[in-house]
Please model this.
Amino acid sequence: MSLEVEDLQAGYGEALVLRGVSLRAEPGELVAIIGPNGAGKSTLLKVVYGLLGARSGAVRYEGEEVTGTAPDALTRLGLNYVPQLGNVFPSLSIAENLLIGASSLPRASRRSAVDDLYERFPALAERRRQRAGTLSGGQRKLLAVARALATRPRTLLLDEPSAGLSPQAVQLVFDKLQEVNSDGIAIVMVEQNARRALALADRGYVLDMGRNAYEGEGRALLADPKVAELYLGARR
Ligand SMILES: Nc1ncnc2c1ncn2[C@@H]1O[C@H](COP(=O)(O)OP(=O)(O)OP(=O)(O)O)[C@@H](O)[C@H]1O
Ligand SMILES: [Mg+2]
Model:
């Protein structure tokens, strides 16, 4: 088991948002989390990555209880997170962004970590001296993903990687995430683009009102008429 969330409760102030959510991701899996606006999907990722405290329940990573562990410590354990609005510094170059991403690695291995990323993301390699702010939406999202990969994680949490992108850029990002996943990196992603995400997912979870509503193999959820009716909208 790579990541395991058990009966998590969390919220903001008085408001309870997660009312007992459980999920797991095995090593190398691609896991999709879908559900209506306000279901608690982003909140779930924030609690897993230690950005928000848990009221009860547990988060375990590779057999170790990590509930409430700080983000930078989780990053060192191999778990990293890409927020919805990315983690890119627009005024810095692509190379600088990636080196900052790699700064949690020992100094001697940073350069080779960045070189590995240029192989995986040739479009970023070509533009390495360019300011990140000049990139297209899709390339900028890929830079955010690449920055998170610079720490050499085994598991990547992604909040809405395709949000706000053109259809072409969505394709680019999904293709790249599949490549990253086939390198053996487990991906746990929240997505509005639910059909697309479930089609790729080894395992999918539907969250609704802070609770698990449905779970199963991605394609099985896609084929479930109840899930389609309640959560996937009209077939296009
Ligand atoms: N910082 C915050 N302070 C107070 N309430 C918050 C905060 N962030 C989120 N919430 C509330 O928590 C609930 C769940 O929000 P969350 O962002 O986790 O949902 P979501 O499933 O990611 O929704 P979306 O699909 O719109 O991104 C919502 O009712 C939201 O208003
Ligand atoms: Mg969200």
